[in-house]
Amino acid sequence: MRKDALLIIDMSNDFVHDQGGLSAGKPAQKIVPFIVELADQFNEMGKPIFFCMDAHEPNDAHFKLWPVHNVKGTWGAHLYGSLGEWYATHKQEQKVHFIPKPEYDAFIRTNLDQLLKEYKVDTVHLVGVCTDICDFLTAYGAYSRGYATIAYKKGMATFTDQHERFLAHMHAILKQQSLTKTEADHVTKRCEDVKQRCSWVSTDPDYVAYHDFEWGRPTYDSQELFELLCLEGMQAGLSWITILKRRSSFRQAFDRFDPKCMSAYSEQKIEHLMKNKGIIRNRLKIKAMITNAQMYLALEKQQSFSDFLWSFTGGTPTVHHYKEAEAIPTSSNESLLMSKALKKRGFKFVGETICYAFMQASGMVNDHETGCFCYAKCLPAQNKVN
Ligand SMILES: [Zn+2]
Ligand SMILES: [Zn+2]
After folding, report:
1. Phi and psi at residue 100, in whole multiples of 5°?
2. How far apart are the CA of 292 and the centre of ligand 2, in A?
3. Measuring CA to CA, which residue among 355, 365, 348 is closest to residue 331?
């Protein structure tokens, strides 16, 4: 049986907080809930967890290359936000470790390797910052010492534009196990004991991971919402799993759904996309997405795309209480209003059904079945039940 350990890398105030000395900012803050959840899962399963953390002297030679960060004993070197709380709650537990590290690679001049060997660990799971620096080099440190590695796409972030590239790079040169699959394997394993999910979720690991970590979680980031709306539009007439399986190809093909890039696509680019087997090759839909990118930019001049969309539910998720999938509608008054408003502004492939699916996915409505373990997780803060 595989023996796993979780390595949480450099999630300090300096690397994550807006005021941090070398902060990856919002992308790093966004991965915190995912990492906390992963830490809970590892802890529940009795698997060891290592907080690997830069620990520098004030005059470290390292600071010739980087802004000052993670100086021993300072605020900046403390774990960020809810991860700090998680650690404070669990630090007395035997399998929770804090590894101060002097280098990028958490294996250099630390006792990490020794501890992993004591636990007979053969696979390390990596999360934290930064994807292309300490995550990458620690992954190599693990690989070169004979450990299998798993990198979590949704558990890593960086302050450069190299996130996706380095994930692919690690996957290629460190024989890393497939990200979404292992992520989902992990979820599946965890859920064998207690978890009950919405009845529509198949056993496909990608689908399970999508349901558990994304579907129905309130999303307020304009660009993420734009991506989701594009994907929902692409789905029209197809199954969601068809889109999900192609999502990374879509991201690559459509410049990670950056509206600025997409709005400027030429005829030549469209022809190029029509030859891309990784995506849905439907000219009408592709053109619609380009139009939508242009409309997004126009709308953003007046108000944020996120505020605009969330206004249809008054800014907070609408909580439903459906016991069974059969009871869940495919559109609503709000989705009809959203559809009309988007169409009026020139958006395409935004019918009321698409809008409703979008509202469910982005957490504007909580349509997890009441028996699903995600139902409570997707409630707005004020009526959160634990
Ligand atoms: Zn450092
Ligand atoms: Zn659910």
Report:
1. -70, 135
2. 29
3. 355
What SS3 class is residue 78?
coil
Nearest ligand (C-alpha, residue 325): 2
279 is a domain residue: yes
Closest-approaching ligand to the CA atom of 52: 1
List, for residues 194-235, the tens digit of each pLDDT value. 468 898 888 777 788 788 878 998 899 999 999 999 999 999
Is the Cβ–Cβ distance between 362 and 316 less than 8 Å? Answer: no
pLDDT digits (tens, 9 = 90+) for 239-270: 999 999 898 889 889 998 999 999 999 999 99
One domain for residues 164 and 248: no
> What total of structural domains would you count in the chain?
2
Active site residues: 210, 232, 240
Which CATH number characterizes residue 341's domain? 1.10.340.30
Residues at Cβ < 5 Å from ligand 2 ion = 198, 368, 372, 374
Residue 77's CATH number: 3.40.50.850
Q: How many angstroms separate the alpha carbon of residue 145 from the centre of ligand 1?
A: 22
Residues 6 or more apart in contact with residue 126 via CB below 8 angstroms: 7, 9, 135, 138, 139, 142, 149, 150, 151, 152, 155, 156
The CA 56 to ligand 1 mean position distance, Å, reads 7
Q: Which residues surround ligand 1, an ion (CB under 5 A)?
A: 54
The range of the structural domain enclosing residue 297 comes to 222-377
* Ligand 1 centroid to residue 14 C-alpha, Å: 10
Read off the tokens for 296.
Answer: 């997004």
* Residues in contact with 333: Cβ distance below 8 Å, sequence separation at least 6, in sequence order: none
CA of 93 to the centre of ligand 2 (A): 31
Do 131 and 64 share a structural domain? yes
Q: Which ligand is nearest to the CA of 217?
A: 2
List the structure tokens of 88.
């404070």
Query: In angstroms, what is the span from residue 249 Cα to ligand 2's centroid?
Result: 26
What is the predicted pLDDT for the residue at 386? 32
Residue 384 domain-assigned (yes or no): no
